[in-house]
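Weekly sync notes, structure subgroup
Attendees: PM, AL, DS (notes)

Item 1: joint prediction request from the bench team. They want all two components modeled as one assembly rather than separately. Inputs as received:
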Amino acid sequence: MSGIEKRLGQLYQELGPQLRAYLCRRHPEPGSADDLLQETFLAALKNAAAFAAARSPKAYLFGIARHVSLDRLRETATEKLRAAPVPVPEAAHDPRLEQMREAISHLKPEFREVLDLRLQGELSYEEIAQALQIPIGTVRSRLHHSIRELRRKVLRSLHADISTSKENEL
Amino acid sequence: MRTFPHLKKMNSEMLEALLLDRALGGLTPEAQLLVSELLERDPEAAQQAREIEQTVSMARETFRGSGLPAENILPMPLDLRRRHSHIPIWTAGIAASLLFGFFCGRQTSPQITAQNESAAREIHPAKSSEFWSARSYLPQSSAHAGAPAPQPQLHWPSPVRRPYWKASL
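Output from the run, pasted for the record:
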């Protein structure tokens, strides 16, 4: 086994769950995310030189995963990223999280994507910029815009609850 | 404790951007110190920071608990999947072909029945008069070989007559 294969094997264990979760949200159909995860690592293996030269393997793999995902979406004649609501487990019936889920699903796909990569994928601003091939300033502004939107939509009602409880305490 | 007098004046947009970066983990340690200093002295900014952190926390929780399958269950890597699946497919394919051939052969092989046996007995061996029989072939081959001289044969047709030699045809 070559050094690249060994390294990719390690990264599969380390980053596989995050990549799979990222792909699952973009392709909720059963089995799709698993196939795309395999394709991601296969593509990295085929482009071993580019992978070895990447500053951040994590950003590189997320970038490939995104390309693979977009290719699949094009194949299925879906030109834009899915605007489907973020799936929520049956057990989670927290009304605040439900509101947040609704608010996230209404974000534009490009905003939702950077938020996903930052909060779930735990990529740094720089890694997100590499993965999406956009300037780091754009990453920052999209993240800021997303959080502002979510705060405005979700916490409006929450603030009312907080202020009410504070008044009761006093 | 260090103080940062230059943070006394800051517009709301800049403050919000700093607080957003802080909540998203996008600040350098130095910048985090600056913002912490500011928040200690500015209750209004501290309240804003709490709200932003709460929003980010809820968004993170929503993303992470978004009904996805268990993250620790990964599919088998592709090369291993190939190794495990292709070899049995080959062997299973060969085995299936052999079995198929065996059963087809059993189904279509000639069955020995009384009718078939009697029909087989009606087939006679080649007669000696046929062209390929040894008896008919040898004289022809000797004729084609050319020039054996006719041998005289002794003829004695009747006891009352004298025998005589005659060349055979």
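Discussion: Helices of chain B lie at 12-24, 29-41, 43-64, 78-108, 114-121, 134-145.
Action: AL to compare against the crosslinking data before next sync.
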